[in-house]
Amino acid sequence: MSDETNDTAARAAKTRAGKAAHAAPASFEDAMKRLEALVQRMESGNEDLGAMVASFEEGQTLLAYCNKTLSEIERKVEILSKKADGSVVAEPFDENLP
Q1: How many other C-beta atoms can be found within 10 angstroms of the C-beta atom of residue 55?
Q2: pLDDT attached to residue 55
Q3: Is 33 helix (H, G, I), strand (E, B) or coil?
Q4: N- to C-terminal Cα distance for the chain?
Q5: Is the four-CA dihedral 12, 56, 49, 40 of positive or negative sign?
Q6: What confidence category does residue 13 fall into, taking pLDDT thresholds of 50, 70 and 90?
Q7: Does the residue 37 lie in any domain?
Q8: Would residue 97 count as lying in a domain?
Q9: Is residue 16 left, alpha or beta, with left meaning phi > 0 and alpha meaning psi from -120 to 50?
Q10: What mean pLDDT, rounded, does the chain reach?
């Protein structure tokens, strides 16, 4: 392959990676699956440096999405506690619990 063909292929790969990085995942589970796929691809050693950087950037975006999602869920979580009289009461989630 010529250098021009390689450059064109590399630009196309970057464009695809860039579009994927900006597309919001449909769900937390989709983001985790995508992260796992990125890690596997990066660990394979089959990507060139440009593709590795694009994969890393996409991974950072997905990680931020997952962290934000988990933080939002954590704020909504309530722990159900049983009182001495047997009744159950909802208490706000305490981040400081062991």
Answers
A1: 19
A2: 93
A3: helix
A4: 58
A5: negative
A6: low
A7: yes
A8: no
A9: alpha
A10: 78
Q: What is the dihedral of CA 51, 54, 59, 65, to 10 degrees?
A: -150
**Backbone phi and psi for residue 88, each to the nearest 5 degrees, phi listed first:** -110, 135
Range(s) of the domain holding residue 71: 3-92
Contact 17, 53 (CB under 8 A): no
Q: Compute the distance between CA of residue 29 and CA of residue 26 in angstroms, rounded to an integer.
A: 8
**73 lies in some domain:** yes
Distances from the Cα of 29 to the Cαs of 23, 62, 82, 96, in angstroms? 15, 11, 32, 26
Give the lowest-confidence range in 56-60, 61-65, 78-82, 83-87.
Answer: 78-82
Q: Is residue 83 part of a domain?
A: yes
- Written as one string, the DSSP assignment of 39-69 is HHHHHHT-S-HHHHHHHHHHHHHHHHHHHHH
Question: Based on the structure, what is the number of domains in the chain?
Answer: 1
Report the residue count for the chain. Answer: 98
Most confident of the ranges 7-16, 17-26, 35-44, 79-88: 35-44
pLDDT of residue 26 exceeding 70, the answer is: yes
